[in-house]
Amino acid sequence: MIELFNPIVVLLVLAGLYMAWNIGANDLANAMGTSVGSGALSIKQVIIVAAVFEFVGAVFFGKKVTSTIAKGIVPIDAIKAIDPNLVAIGMLAAILAAGFWITFATFYNLPVSTTHSIVGAVLGFGIVAVYQDIILLSDINWAVLTKIVGSWLVSPILGAVLAYLIFSVIRVTLLQKAENPYHIEKKFVYLQIGTACFIAFAHGSNDVANAVGPLYAGLNALNLAEATVPIWVLIVGGIGMVIGLATWGYRVIETIGTKITELTPTRGFSAEFATASVVVLHSYSSLPISTTHTLVGSVIGVGLAGGLAAVDLSVIGKIVMSWIITVPIAAFTSALVFVALLGVGL
Amino acid sequence: MKKMEYIRSVLDVFARSPFKPLYLHASKGVETVKILDQAVNAYCTNQPLVEELSHQIDGIEHEADIIKQTIRAQLSSSIMLPVKAEDLLNFLKPQDSIANVAQEAAYMLTLRPCDMPDPIKTNLCELSALTLETVETYEKLVDSLSEILETSFSKREVDESLVLVPTIEEMEHRVDLIEKDLLKEIYSHEEELGAVGVFHLVELVRTIADIADKAEHAADRIRTMILRR
């Protein structure tokens, strides 16, 4: 236990907590804001629901994606064999770089994903390792990386298709048959409480990895963690995200909730259920994806099904731009930080 | 500069709905016609209110213009609506004319004092009242759009709304008939009225009747928008 007070481990925990705070404050808040917008839950209720299910999702279902971030992209076992400290420092560089970029992007309201940032940052560390002849370029798991990047493209589309189908079914079987559509909306308020839990769970299961993936990789390299993710690591991530939600996320939820009045319970339910299903599916497949981008895809899906009065499609261009710039920027920053950390002799 | 807030959000995907301002715009039009009706009655009974009512209409017409401009400005090409944006703008135009034409008619009332035989007065008031009724029915049609959107174009809601279109067309037809009678009546009194009097009254009657025409036109465009989406 005493080895945990290794300065690099402490830094990894702190950086992981900072990242988790950001994820809770913004991404989780976005996912939950849709339930407030339609009036399904009050802000207080939504925070309680989100805290419980986010935590449960992270702790009990967050292992797979965390492993992917930690070991799936860069072959840390090979680097560990040469110098375990290199892995820990590289992962510290990655989480710091991702944290910087997310902080910057949030200040400028850019639709940047924490997932894309951390994947890019971990890749940056791997590329430096290649340049220093620690591993071969072909040692980087390009197949997994391709699958991950592919899932970034597929997940919003899948969200859109699923939301389109769900809303179309609701529309044809309920809304168009009802005497009074407002009664249907009222019933969906209850269902939306369910999807709020579902989406928080899904988010926790996928996004906890963005915060604690590097921490787990460092622990694993230093032989402080086994082949599976220790539960306390996931708990650290879960706690960080819940704190982020409680200390800042409620403001984001308020902002979103007051502006998304278009998203009535049937529309909100469709978008949330589609998003949560897609995210959980990816968590199960060990693939880190952006919950926020999937949610945007799902909202567009509801719009395509004729469920929304106005959808701004220019957001698609912004998201694609953020994909294109995030990975190189995060990779480059991470490489710089890594080289700098090695330079100061950490 | 954008307000600095530590927020990344999904809000960008939600564009402002143009349908609420569209209804607001329609109701501004109805308001001008309501006041015009008061003005016509005041005119026929020689009350000194006409000038003031005409000013009121000017103000409301200006408000309607601002709403129209906002709606147009918000509909950039990236906005996806459940109807064709082109169709929506196509009905906004005649809807906007309602207030414009009402403004014109009210202004004409201020140009000359009332000097006409009683039967013309009665018919003129009737024309104005029926025009107002037509426009009010049109407002109902625009209001029903929200219900249509809520159910996401349920057949029943669409049918319930579209029933109003032939009603409006029928009312506009009745306005036309009154207009024709009135014109005949005016010319039959050309001796008493004098050339300028006839000219003024003919213009006035045509302008008022034109309001119902615009409402009918806009209603027709709404039908196209709903059915063609």
Automatic annotation (TrEMBL), chain A:
Q: What is the lineage of its organism?
A: Archaea, Methanobacteriati, Methanobacteriota, Stenosarchaea group, Methanomicrobia
Q: What is its main location?
A: membrane
Where found, per UniProt? Membrane
Summarizing the function annotation, the protein's role is: Potential transporter for phosphate.
Q: Does the keyword Transferase apply?
A: no
Q: Where are its TM segments located? A: 41-61, 86-110, 116-137, 149-170, 229-248, 295-316, 323-344
One of the entry's Gene Ontology molecular-function terms is:
phosphate transmembrane transporter activity
The cross-references to InterPro entries, in alphabetical order and at most eight, read: Phos_transporter (IPR001204)
Q: Which family does it belong to?
A: Belongs to the inorganic phosphate transporter (PiT) (TC 2.A.20) family.
What species does this protein belong to?
A: Methanococcoides vulcani
Q: GO CC annotation: what is one?
A: membrane
Which key words are in the record?
Answer: Membrane, Phosphate transport, Transmembrane, Transmembrane helix, Transport
Q: Under which name does UniProt file this protein?
A: Inorganic phosphate transporter, PiT family
> What is the topology of this protein in the membrane according to its UniProt annotation?
Multi-pass membrane protein
Instruction: Output the superkingdom of the source species.
Output: Archaea
What Gene Ontology terms for biological process does this UniProt record contain?
A: phosphate ion transmembrane transport
Q: Does the keyword Transmembrane helix apply?
A: yes
From TrEMBL, chain B:
Q: Which InterPro entries match?
A: DUF47 (IPR002727), PhoU-like_sf (IPR038078), Put_Phosphate_transp_reg (IPR018445)
Q: Which family does it belong to?
A: Belongs to the UPF0111 family.
Q: Which NCBIfam families match?
A: TIGR00153 family protein
- Protein name in the entry: TIGR00153 family protein
Source organism (scientific name): Methanococcoides vulcani
- The superkingdom listed in its UniProt entry is Archaea
Note one Pfam family from the annotation.
Answer: PhoU_div
